[in-house]
Design a protein that fits this description.
single chain, 276 residues, 2 domains, 5 helices, 43% strand
Amino acid sequence: MLVALKADLRIEASEAQKGDKYICPGCGSSVVLKRGRIRIAHFSHRPPINCSWARGETIAHMNGKKMLFDSLRARNLAVEIEAVLSNLTGADRRADVLVTSPRGFRVAIEIQHSNIDLDNIFARTRSYMELGIGVVWIGMISGDLIDEAEDYGNCRLIERYQARPWERWVCNLPSSKSKGIWYLEYERARLWRGQFEKHEIDVPDSSFRDEYGEEVYVGGYTKTSKRWRELWLEGPFQLSEIRIGRDVRKAWSGDFFEYPGGVLAKLIAPSDINLR
């Protein structure tokens, strides 16, 4: 966690001092400030850990939240990290980053590092909509994958990417003009906008003799992989370059995915602005 309570006041780990008493905003138990030369400053529960707010969060995820928070705060926007929303669905009622535009439009930015099931991401998105808060889901991608991708100038191709169901769900969440999934390359603090394409597998020619001694020829065609996708990444974009806007989509239900309808938020790249 990056935020705890000190005498009922929220305090960020980066501004906290060791030796003071801090409380988890979720479960009310005491937490310990951890700060080092390498790891990001954060609060940690003492074992045994029974708080849902303390489970499954990685250092990379905390770093990602802090990067986005610092970038938005540098623009003098009203922004809060690990903002508690009491009416949000689920055990964890925090938005990773909550930013409010000068016109009062609130946007939750959720950084997803670990896997999340489709029912959970659907319910959380719908809950934000019901609160009148736009939401943007951002995945995380490693610099190693980016470096290994084929370079096409202003985009990269990861030819075989095992897209998790939630990633494919997020890619189709925005309206048709804004489709895609954003990734944070946290090692270099930059963003990429991704699109998935089918990955075709070549099945080579081969032959064998059947039980009657006849030669049978097979292969010589391509098929669509069920496991792999091609991931095309546009970018990179610096965090300071990205703008946030409103988006709207209709509710939709299909064979594999279901989407709630309502107001969303979208990230706007410099290339989008230049096309207007």
